[in-house]
Amino acid sequence: MIFIFLLIVSHTNQRSYRSTRNNVPYSVAQLLTTAKPINLSIHIVLSLLCKSYIMTPEELASLRKDYTMNALNEADMAATPILQFEKWWRDAEMSQITEMNAMTLATTAHDGMVDARTVLIKAFDEKGFVFFTNYNSSKSSQLEFNSNCCLLFFWKELERQVRINGIAEKISTKESIEYFDSRPDGSKIGAWASPQSMVVAGKTWLKETFEYYAERFKHGHIPKPPHWGGYRVKPIRVEFWQGRPSRMHDRILYTETEAGIWMHERLAP
Ligand SMILES: Cc1cc2nc3c(=O)[nH]c(=O)nc-3n(C[C@H](O)[C@H](O)[C@H](O)COP(=O)(O)O)c2cc1C
């Protein structure tokens, strides 16, 4: 009886959550942060009993959003993709997007597979887009092998995507040191302690290695590890994507001519 009661109440509540949030069913984790205590306890009990919050295939297939916020017109585009990126970057700043500096970096693996991971952009200008990493990591080894790569930003709050195809090269040691010196001590020690992308003995090993370097550098300046530094991705093609209603999105692609002048054209969505 209690179970049936909970099921009915839960179903009612579930619908009301959906109606307030674009018809997206909630996971238990989301509920933990948003639901009222009474609803929360009902949902927790129920989810333990019958896992009712796993999305059905039909619900998953019906997840979609119509984009209406903005448009992208040729006449409004800046002369270079970096200037256009700067405009969109300012919009992103104004919109207070969380982790607007997070971008996907796609590379080619040694076996021809494509690989991708998130990194943080730390600078950009006419020369390109800069991120920092471990030069012994998988991504670095892949970039040494094939410096062609792709950076992707998705700013969902603005219904925008920026796709940058380019060539990565290491920045100067001086530039890397300048940025490394600005990092918090914990991140500096982490850069020494983590043999990024390598298989390690376990979490305890990582903890002990961190503690070893924390002890080693407890007095004074923490230098940049030789294996750590930045890459700059020099853009070759940059596409700006603005979501539009009925999947008729705006896409403007910049390419550089042989004369070094940027031109842009519209792509079909
Ligand atoms: C939000 C976010 C930001 C990240 N920023 C960086 C970064 O700036 N540099 C970096 O090396 N790894 C960063 N990582 C971790 C990478 O995604 C990745 O796990 C790590 O670099 C190892 O990748 P690899 O084995 O392909 O070299 C970030 C991960 C996330 C989720």
Which secondary structure elements does this structure contain, and how are they paired or packed?
Blueprint (H helix, E strand, L loop, with lengths): L1 H19 L7 H7 L2 H14 L6 H5 L19 H14 L7 E7 L5 E7 L2 E3 L2 E7 L3 H8 L2 E8 L4 E11 L2 H9 L3 H9 L9 H14 L11 E15 L7 E7 L5 E6 L2
Antiparallel strand pairs: 1-2, 1-5, 3-4, 4-7, 5-6, 6-7, 7-8, 8-9
Essential attributes:
single chain, 269 residues, alpha+beta, Pnp Oxidase, Chain A, 2 domains, nine-stranded antiparallel sheet, 9 helices, 37% helix, 26% strand, disordered N terminus, binds flavin mononucleotide
Descriptive report:
- With about 270 residues, the protein is an alpha+beta fold.
- The protein has 2 domains: about 1-60, no CATH class; about 75-265, Roll (Pnp Oxidase, Chain A), CATH 2.30.110.
- It is about 35% helix and about 25% strand.
- The chain has helices spanning about 1-20, 30-35, 35-50, 55-60, 80-95, 140-145, 175-180, 185-195, 205-215; strands at about 100-110, 115-120, 125, 130-135, 150-155, 160-170, 230-240, 250-255, 260-265.
- Strand 8 and strand 9 form a beta hairpin.
- Helix 1 (about 1-20) crosses helix 3 (about 35-50) and helix 8 (about 185-195) crosses helix 9 (about 205-215).
- The longest helix is centred in the N-terminal third of the chain and has 19 residues, at about 1-20.
- Residues about 5-35 have low confidence and may be disordered.
- The chain binds flavin mononucleotide.
